[in-house]
Design a protein that fits this description.
The complex is a heterodimer of chains A (500) and B (488).
Chain A (H helix, E strand, L loop, with lengths): L1 H8 L3 H19 L2 H29 L2 E4 L10 E4 L1 H28 L5 H20 L3 H19 L6 H31 L4 H11 L3 H17 L8 H8 L2 H35 L2 H21 L4 H22 L2 H32 L10 H4 L1 H15 L5 H15 L3 H27 L14 H19 L4 H14 L3
Antiparallel strand pairs in A: 1-2
Chain B lengths: L2 H21 L4 H28 L5 E8 L2 E6 L2 H27 L5 H20 L3 H19 L5 H33 L16 H14 L11 H4 L5 H28 L1 H7 L3 H20 L3 H21 L3 H32 L10 H4 L1 H15 L6 H14 L3 H27 L17 H28 L5
Antiparallel strand pairs in B: 1-2
Helix pairs in contact in B: 1-2, 1-4, 2-3, 3-4, 3-9, 3-13, 3-18, 4-5, 4-9, 5-6, 5-9, 6-7, 9-10, 9-12, 9-13, 11-12, 11-17, 12-13, 12-17, 13-15, 13-16, 13-18, 15-17, 15-18, 16-17
The chains are: A mainly alpha (500), B mainly alpha (488).
Chain lengths: 500, 488
Amino acid sequence: MIEAVWALIGDDLPALQIAVPLLAATVCVLVRRPRAAWAVAMLVAWSAFANAAVILHRVLTTGTISYFEGGWPVPWGIELRIDLLNALVLLVVTGICAIVLLAAPRSLAAEVPEEKHYLFYAVYLLCMTGLAGMTVTGDAFNVFVFLEISSLSSYALISQGRTPRALTSAIQYLVMGTLGGTFILLGIGMLYMTTGTLNIVDLASRLAMVGPNRTVLVALACITVGTGIKLALFPLHIWLPNAYTYAPAVVTAFIAATATKVAYYVLVRFVYSIFQVSLAFEVNRLDAVLLPVSIAAMFAGSLVAIYQDDLKRMLAYSSLAQIGYMVLGLALANVNGLTGGLVHIFNHAIMKCGLFLVLAAVLLRTGSTRLSAFAGLGRRMPLTFAAFVVGGLSLIGVPLTVGFVSKWYLVLGALDAGLWPVAVLILASSLLAVVYVWRVVEVGWFAEPPADAPEVAEAPLGLLVPIWILIGATLFFGVFTSLSAGVASAAARMLIGGAA
Amino acid sequence: MSAVAAVGLAVVWPLAAVVLIALTHRRPNLRETGTLLTAGSLFAVVAGVILPAVQAGGRPRLEVLELLPGLELAFEVEPLGMLFGLVASGLWLVTTFYSIGYMRGHHEANQTRFYICFAIAICGALGVAFAANVLTLFIFYELITISTYPLVTHSGTEAAKRAGRLYLGILMGTSIAFLLLAVAWTWLAAGTTDFRPGGILAGAVGGTQLVALLALYAFGTGKAALMPFHRWLPAAMVAPTPVSALLHAVAVVKAGVFTVLKVAVYIFGIDLLATTGASRWLTWVAAFTIIAASCVAISKDNLKARLAYSTISQLSYIVLGAALATTAGALGGGMHILMHAFGKITLFFCAGAIMVGAHKTEVSELDGLGRRMPFTFGAFLLGSLSVIGLPPAGGSWSKWFLLLGAAEADAWPMMVVLMASSLLSIAYLMPIVVRGFFRPAPADDGHGAGIHEAPLLCVLPPVVTALGGIVLFFVADDVWRLLTGMVP
């Protein structure tokens, strides 16, 4: 039976990553009952996760997977192309989708009216469709199409927040996101104009033949700015803090761990697979722009995070800093540095998603995510608080957590590039993380809750389980790094080697 | 049991205590029995299984797993680590007895958390002692920092919170900003981070880069309390006294100077440091710390603060031993880890006993107390002798070898510094004993005459460690022979 199914769909796995959630989204609308819609979403998300694991395994054993939609060959048809790089990203995206869904029913109940839940799950699956599509596609224009699917659905998700500010944040994100999408589209258009193709592999080989010219430079600039907005690279980040702060807690956990990561993946794909090292870094000196900007992001994000009273906003600014690390890894343009950037997709996704779910639990129990809500949390919600401490240590980059692995590769990359001041800056910015994490730990550990504070109990299992899956993964992959860092460094070697 | 298995067991064994303590948290007597049994069996394993193997010239090595390609979490016991492991595990046992007396006598809260964090810190200390490479050492170094934070802030007062901030800020700050960078640099330059006899950097790093790398290691190891990164240690004195005694006189601070010494011997190599002179500047930083901290100690009236500055000064003896880049200096430094541990833990035990028995914390309040607490003050006297470096206390030997090392390196200013520091330590320790025994007690005392010591469990441990310090004077030869295995 299993073999029969396998024979039927075994080769179509990449396409299923897009088709199944897309169809399931409509099913969610049809069933209307919140529980049933959740069950559909869970089934789809977890099987997508399993599917991504199979795909990664296959890429590791047999190499890059190329799939032609509808059997149409390139250049007429659209290719889905999965190599080590996007196999890893796909695993992260689907995994986070699946785990966040575990937390959704309990957390949503407190924030979104129940009659809207089925729509929430439908839009959630659409967003997942877009993100997975951007990841697996081998066609530059397709990237833009799926980007818009994921963006439009994420505006809808963010607008579901409890306060009216959620709406204005969603609109702010909509305006900025549309700008970003437009820049990306312009860039892709110019590439098409120059080369006459949209397939990523063809683009790469033809660009190499065309050589440097002004149109290509402008295309590179447009794509860098466009993805820069989508991945909230300082100073193009202004949509991010509000969106993360005012969105429902699970949406923040989901978007923080996936949307910016996929945007980062797109930037890596364009820079390393299409333009490649020679055109991006040797002819056009992309690093001269991205190095200072990413370092500024590391410091600006962490410094602002220190002064935030709302912890969702604090973690949002922390994300800005972490995005800085990722872009820095890209800009270093050597194997160690890029490995650091890529492995941070994985590492930052699990730790930040875990931390935002901790905030979801705190919001559920205390009704607030302000610093004062953490008073005495060490005694009132010990397991939740412990998760925050571990996640925070990982943000700092303490050894045996995933944060250390990323930072180790980034420091090696900076030293490899001969940029020892950059290595010092990477470590110095980690010290800022000590400050913004520890001020929360101090309040949770020492402060007495106010006398009139509501009775608070440990978070429900529905939240504790996903939180500790992610926080446990933070520790597990901090020790056993062959999956995360192993795949990331193989992908980095492949990209720097110039093979698409 | 094979020595290799014993190494792995020794590192995780304190964690067994964590489980026992957590399970028995409602029954204090059972809980303390569990801690005692774990500490006792740990010491038995370290002294009974690993020590003979190392003395016979073995280097039991245990590779746990590969963290990143080429970078292993691994343990290998060599003489210096053996010595530190013995000190940490042996004194943990003594301190556990003392903790029971002190924590109960002082009616401290949250004792379960206290014992759990204590055990984790010991796990960290053994990991540092037995680490086979700098990365493993770094991991356990950070474990010590994090696990001791709740101990420093145990009382939860505003002062404790501030001290905790300084503690974490300096220790974690220096280790992330400097030590981690040094580890990464070592890895890139030498292609390994293993500790190897004779060092791994010869031919890989040279010139001013060598000086810079040594500076990253020396200042990155904030636990060594080299000035100007020493402020955390006096701040940590807000912790309960057993913490100050074992952690801030032995395990934590010795993990720091142990790191500096081990890196100097096994990463740089004494020969490389001697021929390039890359560590010359470090002898001056250490000398400054020795003298300056002693002077501050003299000015402190609070007993624990005075002892803390004395520790800062004495730690730099060991850094000096490493920086002299001579065999005798390195051996003297290694020996001082042991000798100072016994001396200083005695002094802190006594300070705690005085606090529990007479509720006194300032040196100026100690007049005549020696006649009420003769055992405590007698132990204090013996401990002082060891710290000052006078026979018949073990400390005289380590100081002797450090002097030899300085002479070997033609560093006569350092000989002067060592001598001056001995005089200064007489000046800050002896007045305490003199006040206790020879000054008349204040009239309004109200305690009356006769002996009035702290509870037995607070008094016995310092007496034991004080006598241990005397025994060490006579067995120094064995220590010397063990340590000679560390220099090729």
